[in-house]
Fold this sequence. Notes:
An eight-stranded parallel beta sheet has the order 1-9-8-6-5-4-3-2. Strands 7-11-10 form a three-stranded antiparallel beta sheet, with helices on one face. It has 13 helices and eleven strands. α2 runs parallel beside α3, α3 (49-62) runs parallel beside α4 (78-88) and α8 (175-183) packs across α13 (291-313). The chain has helices spanning 5-10, 27-35, 49-62, 78-88, 101-109, 121-129, 151-161, 175-183, 205-213, 236-247, 251-258, 261-266, 291-313, and strands at residues 16-18, 40-43, 67-72, 92-96, 113-118, 135-138, 144-145, 166-169, 188-191, 219-222, 230-233.
Amino acid sequence: MIKTPICELIGIEYPIFQGGMAWIADGKLAAAVSNGGGLGIISAMNANAEYLREQIRLARTLTDKPFGVNIMLMSPFADEVAKTVAEEKVAVVTTGAGNPSKYMKDWIEAGVKVIPVVASVAMAKLMTRVGASAIIAEGGESGGHVGETTTMVLVPQVCDATDLPVLAAGGIADGRQLAAAFMLGAQGVQVGTRFLVADECSVHPVYKEKILKANDIATITTGKRLGHPVRSLKSPFSREYAKLEYHCQNDEDLQGKAGGAFRRAAVEGDEKNGCFLAGQVAGMIHKTQPAAEIIREIFEEGEAVLSEVSRKWVK
């Protein structure tokens, strides 16, 4: 079985991280992924320290394996949840939507491995200098907040720019994509959208059904006007928002339109007013499964693909 340095660094069986999806990645899902041999991740999203501590302690009742926390640095509670991560001494913290440099010293002193999500080579270089343990290079195929560069182009450039282990993210849902990530130089992957349909994922059933019904052109990117592009499933909300980006007179009204939309999708299953975050791989996902089965299936298929490539093409 393939073992990469990421496995040794974190103490996991498979080099597969679960994405930190807001309103979705809770302690229950994180524990299920970690029990399955990957790295489960709790999303701190826009919640406060009390919520995060509760989810960390829930996960610890469900698994004795390593798990992580994802902090969205745009959150108004970023300072307090960053402190909670250090106090609780979680195994890993991943970060997105900002620069985590000011928190790095406290995390590292607490023994937390810091693995930032980056969308550019420049940020990967900065994170290498300030003490990150590894880097997640996330391409624009991903769901949620996205960058401009695709995974196929970003990952090899980040691998060339740092001596740290790199995980690929964005557009990864099966073993073929895992194998491709390895070929690009990554030592692991982060998977988000496929875990939306894990049995242990508590997202609203309407959300899961939308993922299962998605096709190859099911997603749309909105929010570029405000400087924070987001990829989601096409829906009444996302289509209307896309129109407003061209016609709305001021940014404040546009920003107000988005407030609460992620929660309405994930918690309430509001098909009209919810924003159903999803990556472009949504069209490849056709069944619900236990998290552990998802991990094994991705990894075993990836190994088979690499073996077949070697058999057919390596002379």
